[in-house]
Amino acid sequence: MGERLRAEGLTLAYDRRVVAEHLGIGIPDGSLTVIVGPNACGKSTLLHALARIIKPQAGAIVLDGRPIASMSPKALAQQLGLLPQSPTTPDGITVADLVARGRFPYQKLLRQWSAEDDEAVLTAMRATGVTELATRLVDELSGGQRQRVWLAMALAQETPILLLDEPTTFLDIAHQVDVLDLCAELREERRRTVVAVLHDLNHACRYATHLIAMRDGRVIAQGPPAEIVTAELVEEVFGLRCRIITDPETDTPLVLPLARESRARRDKTEDRAAAGVPRVSA
Q: Could you tell me the pTM of the whole model?
């Protein structure tokens, strides 16, 4: 696979607080790339840098060999779509009107709203199951419904690369699976490249074709989940002792946290070993 979108030597910071240094990643074309890691490790910050929401202190985001900093907003918006983690809904806007805003990058002085725009909006609303909500005010919806409406707006933008910051937030388990199934379909059937930040490691292992594991602003590992997800990696990244088995449904890695008693026994054994206490055989 090629890599249309790359991050090269990134230093990312908020004011004077450095979040990440010397980051380098490549997003495989046509992949469903998932970024995982503990809270405050830099996942969303990296995604925002990829979308040009924040400006790197050093390094560059490169799209098709060109720094995105040199691209016009409309040109970039035709290539990259972003669903932020907590988008702000304009007051008094209906579902259909919000989804239609995804077509803004294609509006020009001599090209106003078209049948193509209508079809893109309707297709996005059908895909996310919000068609029946078209005339409702977004402010009246539940958190899960609003999340699906915002996802529909991102889909209506019809970009070849879609960036999703925790797209399953506020969703129950059935709708989480629906959204992730949709992401897989976008990659498989529409040849989109999807990059998502997820908290659920097992969802990431099941759906990702490419996984990026981060901790403390560093990339610890990246590659196909089946190749990189080990008990050692999970403990290094999340500080969680676990077993890795094969998911019987998908043949992907499945992370099973050790039971409390098992963790306690292992901790005690390691403490004894560190103290030089010999192990007593039964």
A: 0.85
